Amino acid sequence: MVNGIIALLIFIFTLYLIFSEKLHRTIAGLLGAAAMLIVGKVFGFYSETEAIETIDFSTLGLLLGMMILVALLEPTGIFEFIAIKAAQFSKGKPGKLLVLLGLITTVLSMFLDNVTTVILIAPVTVLICELLGFSPTPFLITEALLSDTGGIATLIGDPPNLLIAAAAGLTFNDFLTHSLPIVVVTWITALVLLKYLFRKELNTSPSNIEGLMELNATEVLKEGKTAIRVMIVLVVAVIFFFLEELLHISPAFIALTAATVALVWVRPDPRETLSRIEWSVLVFFGALFIMVGGLEKTGLLESLAHGLSGLAHQNPLLFSIALLWFVALLSAFLDNIPITVAFIPVIQSLAASGINVAAFWWALAFGAGLGGNGTIIGSTANIVVASLSERTRNPITVKLWNKRGLPVMLATCAVTTILFIIAYPYLSK
Amino acid sequence: MKLSACMKQNVIFVSPETTLRETANTFIKHHIGTLPVVDADKKLVGILLIRDLVSQVFPDFVNIMQDIDFILDFGAAEARQPDDALLNTPISEIMQPPISCRGDSSLLRAATLIKKHNLLDLPVVDDDERLIGIASLVDIGTKFLHGWNKA
After folding, report:
1. Is the pLDDT of residue A218 over 80?
2. Is residue A84 part of a domain?
3. Does residue A269 belong to the interface with chain B, where contact is any CB pair within 8 Å?
4. How many domains are there within chain A?
C-alpha cells in the first residue's frame, strides 16, 4: 500500500508538471518514468525488465511509421494543392468553401495527425480568404474543430485512440465499425452548427474571384512525383489496416513497412526526413508507458477501481456517460493525451475486477476527442489556428472561441451521448 | 571623398506627430521614398520609408506563406484601403529608429549603412544629431564611381 501511494504521488506530480507547463511534457514524462523506476527498485515493486515490457512498442512503431509518411508528404505541397483545387471548385462561395475545406481537413486528419493537418491547411486557408476578401476566422475555427472531431473516427486519427487501442486491444476495423458511424453524425452536427453560428460572416459574396481562380495550383505542388508515390503507399497501407485481423499483422508492422517502402521509393535525404519526425512525442509516449506501468504494478489502482466498481457494475451505461462528459470537460482545458493515460489504468483495473469495460473505452475516446473543441487551449490544433490568426487582421480571441467552439463542443457531446445510449448494447459487446 | 559632397541640402522632413494621411500626401507631393522624422530642434528621431506605409496594407498571407510565386493575382487584397483609424495615427507609431551618418563620413561607409539597413536614402546629420542633408544610394553611388575613372 505504501508503494502504491508513493507511485501515485509520482504519477500525480508528473501530471501536475505536465498540465501546469512547468516542464515540457516530454521532460516531465521522463522525470516521472525515472522517478517511478528508482522508487520501484528501492521498494522492490518495479524492475527494469518490467519497465521495458510496459513500453508498447507497437504503438510507438505505428506512430513512427505514420510520422515518416507525413514527413515525406509535407514538403511536397500536396496539401496546399488539394486545398487550392477545392477552393477553386467552390468558386469562392463562402458556404461551399467552408464545407469543402472542412471536409478535406477532416479526411486528412482521419489518417494523419490533427496538428500536422491544421498546420498544413491553415496558411492556405488564410491565403484563399484574403484573395476573396473574407475574414479567415470562421474557416480556421471550423478546420480546427472538424479535424479534432474527424480524428476520433480512426485508430490512427489521434494519439489518444492509439493509446486506447493498445490498452483495450482494439483494431483499426473496430474503430471503423464503432467510432466512425457516430463521428459521421457528430461531424454533420458540428458543421451545421458552425454554418449557423457563422451565418453572418458567411453571408457575403467574394469581392474578387479572379485572384482565387488564377492561383497556379501546379506550381504549389513542388514535388508531384514524390507526393503521388507516398500517397499510393499510404492508400495501400490503409487497405492493409483493414485486413489487419485477417492477415494477423499488427498496425505497427504495416506502418513501418509502408514507411520503408516509401523511403526506398522516394530516396530522400534521410537526415532531413527524420528531422521532421516529432521525436519528443515518441519519447513522451515511452516515458508515460513506463510510469503508468509502475503505478499498475503496485496494485493501488485495483483498490481505487474497487471504489468505482459499484456504479460501474450497477449502471454501466450511466457510468460510461459520466466518464464521457468528465473526460470531455477535462480535455477542454488540458492536453488529452495525459488525460487518456490517467484513465486507462483505471478502466483496466475495472476490467480486472470483472466488469465489462468495452463501452468505457469508447466513452473515453469520444470524451478525449470532443472535449478539446471547447476552449481555445483545448487542443493543439486550436492553439495552432489561434496563433496563426494573430498574424492576420482578425485574431481569434478567447471570447470568440467561447461563443463558437464551446457550443459546438457541447452539441457534439450531446449528440454523441444520445447515439451512445442508442448504440450501447453494440458498443458494450 | 566625403558624404557632404554629394548630399542634397534641401531636405523634406516631417515631425513625429504628423499623421499617416498627411505623410502619404508629402510622399506624393515630392515623389520621394524616404522622410526623415525630426523634433522641434531638428534632431533626427526616426525615419520613414514609403515601404513602411505601403506595408500597412500588405495582405496577411505574405507573412504566412513561404512562397508566393504561385499567386498571380492578389484578388480582393489588391483593393484594400487603410481605415481612418490607421490614417489618423501619428507616424511615430510606425517609423523606424533613426539611422544616419555624419557629413564627414566616407562614401563607402554611407553606402554600407544603406545596404545593411535596406534603406533608400541616408539622412546626414551634424555633430549634434541635427539633420543637415540627405543622400540617396544613387547620389552616393555615382559619386563613388567617379573615383574609378581616375586610373
Report:
1. yes
2. no
3. no
4. 1
Domain that holds residue A287: 1-54+279-297
From chain A residues 27-66, the ones with a CB under 8 A of any chain B CB are none
Place of cell 516529432: A278
- Residue A56 three-state SS: coil
pLDDT-based confidence at residue A310 (cuts at 50, 70, 90): confident
Q: Per-residue pLDDT for B87 more than 90?
A: yes
- What is the spatial distance between Cα A357 and Cα A186, in angstroms, rounded to a whole number? 23
Q: How far apart are CA A247 and CA B76, in angstroms?
A: 54
> Which chain A residue has its CA at the smallest distance from B67's CA?
A220
Phi/psi of residue B136, nearest 5 degrees: -85, 170
- Kindly report, residue by residue over A54-94, the tens digit of the pLDDT: 898 988 999 899 999 999 998 898 999 999 999 999 998 99
In angstroms, the separation between the Cα of residue A274 and the nearest Cα of chain B is 21
Domain range enclosing B32 = 3-150
- Residues A320 and A224: their CA atoms lie apart, in Å, by 46
Provide, as residue numbers in chain A, all residues whose Cβ is less than 8 Å from the Cβ of B76. Answer: 130-133, 206-208, 211
Q: For residue B99, what is the domain's CATH number?
A: 3.10.580.10
* Amino acid (1-letter code) at residue B65: M
Based on the structure, what is the number of domains in chain B?
Answer: 1
Distance CA B101, CA B115 (A): 13
> Is A68 among the domain residues?
no
The total number of residues shown for chain B amounts to 151
Chain A residues in contact with B72 by the CB 8 A cut-off are 214-216
Which three-class secondary structure state does DSSP give residue B37? strand
Question: Nearest residue on chain A to B78, judged by CA atoms?
Answer: A131
- The shortest CB-CB distance from B59 to any of A130, A206, A207 is to A130
For residue B64, give the nearest of A126, A208, A210 by CB distance.
Answer: A126
> Closest partner residue to B76 among A130, A216, A217, by Cβ?
A130
How many CB pairs lie under 8 A apart between chains A and B? 68
What's the residue count for chain A?
429
Q: Where are the alpha helices (DSSP H) in A276-335?
A: 279-297, 300-314, 316-333
Angle formed at CA B62 by CA B59 and CA B66, multiple of 5 degrees: 160
pLDDT of res. A353: 80
CB A117 within 8 A of CB A74: no
Per the CB < 8 Å rule, is B76 touching A133?
Answer: yes
From the candidates B57, B62, B64, which should be mutated to test the interface with A, based on the most A CB atoms within 10 A?
B64
As for the ipTM of the complex, it is: 0.70
